[in-house]
Amino acid sequence: MRLHRILSTRLLRPFAVVAVLAAVLWAAINSENQRRQVSTDDALRLSSLTWKVNETIYEALRLHIALLQVEQGNVPAKSLQTRIDVLWSRLGIFDQKDIFSDLDLKEMVKGYESFLTALEKSWGKDLKFNSQQLQAAKFELQALNADFRRLWITDYLQQHRSVVHFAQYNSNRDAVFHNNLIIASFVAVLIYCAFECVVSFLAAKKERTLRREAIKKSEAKSAFVANVSHEIRTPLNGVLGMAQLLSETSLTPQQNGMVGTILTSGKVLQHTINDILDISKIDSNAFVFAERVFSLQEIVQNVFVINEPTARSIGIDFSFQISSESPVKLLGDSMRIVQVVNNLVSNALKFTDVGFVNLRVSVRDGGSPSTRQLMFSIEDSGCGLSEHEAQLVFDPFYQTEQATQKKYKGTGLGLSISSAICKAMGGDLTVSSVLGRGSTFTATFEVKPFCSSAMQDIEKKEKIGDGLVRKISDLKRARQDNELSNSGLRLLIVDDSKINRRVLGAFSKKHSNFIAEAETGEEAISLTEEKYFDVIFMDINMPGMGGKAATSKILSEKKRLGLPPPIIIAVTANVMPDQLQEYRACGVDHTVAKPVRKREIDYLLKEIGGRIAMDELGVQRTG
Length: 623
What we know:
- The two termini are 91 Å apart.
- It contains 19 helices and twelve strands.
- By secondary structure, it is of the alpha/beta class.
- The strands form two sheets. Strands 1, 2, 3, 4, 5, 6 and 7 form a seven-stranded mixed β-sheet that branches.
- The relative contact order is 0.06.
- Helix 15 links the parallel strand 8 and strand 9.
């Protein structure tokens, strides 16, 4: 199984194929070399034996010639002894392996040996023989030579020719074998390449399928998040909007405190919804932070005000202490800090039946001269955590054994979100706990010390963009054409929610002299064709024609008529970076996130109205 996993990896597979192919080629070549070696050895043995037979025949013929010469008297009889000795030496070159491998050769060698033995025995050492003995020896040797020559021609010479032919055949066969081996290797490589192509194609196809499914799931999740975000933020916009308006009326101190609690709780809820609904942001810890100047005393007091009624109702002593060395003001995302601390305090109260919950706040030097470490320690006398639970408590959706009880039900996301926020803000969230004795959660954040230059930088970031400034200057001619004074702005509020239109209308009232409302995109287009408007507050998600389509239609119609376009401000719960880019692409000038803050609307309309008034004043003076 392990080998299969290794070979299945795309990185090692080519090396495995090359190794297997090399092993097969080595085995084939080695087998062919062994076969060729056997053939070579047989050929060498046959060639040696043929030479031995040839030499023996040659010397036997020379002995026969010597016998003829002695018979004719041409040479002395003593010369026969030399020829006999040479023939004996030739017979001696046949070893036992040569003789026993061929029975005919064995008989012929024995025949020669018997002939020479009998010849030496009958003639003696002095070679005394008569003509009759010489004649008999001559005829016997001639018969032996004829038989041996016949054996040489029919067997050994023919075998030698066969060996030569076989050698040529082997040479051709080797060439064919090597060619076939090369072709087979090439085919194997082609098959492997084809296999890799098929595997790569299937892998790419699967990857494309998975990517499409992931994109579909992501789009479905984004659509779900956008829809839920819109459905939650819309009523929240009404709650916070009305609370802001209520705070500006005549209230008793007690009522004013209640309204403040509503606003504070609503803002915390707003930012909590932002993180919980944005699942992708939570998974990747891609939080966006806004630096603002905040009062440490104020945010701690807000946390206390939110949670003190709960502590009082269950009989828990809830208190807080701020270190005397802590600065009054700091620079950071106070809403994120309140979200985390409020979650930790709320958890502490939830899991404490009797005793206390104490919040301690201190500020230490940060990792650099320009930063500080803000630390909140929340200690309680509750049920505590086991060592195992303390290791898992920051995991998403994890709930302790106590949390699974009915009265402690929750999503299991609070601590994981809080931990992610702390880490994203350069800090951390840790826990120290003993089961049955309580817990201490410590949250740290990296913040900056407050200074006037930092405040100026923040104010610059909050100013409207240059594009919107240029758009404001383009409204001058349109207001002159419509004979409008600089007493106020003409506004159109487009939203399918009556509550949202009422909130925006109340926020914008002091900066305008005319406010019209439209419930749909089609109604907004119709109104812009009939009347002139300086600013349009455009809801993005509406039944029928949405805000983006309505914006594009309004701007294209103004361009067709050669009229300056109005300033279009999107008012939406969907403010992800890609969504903001879509709004700008269809012509939106600015975006306000729901729930709407009255301070932001005041600033925008005051800036727009002030710049228009300056332009008109400049025109009058020039005139």
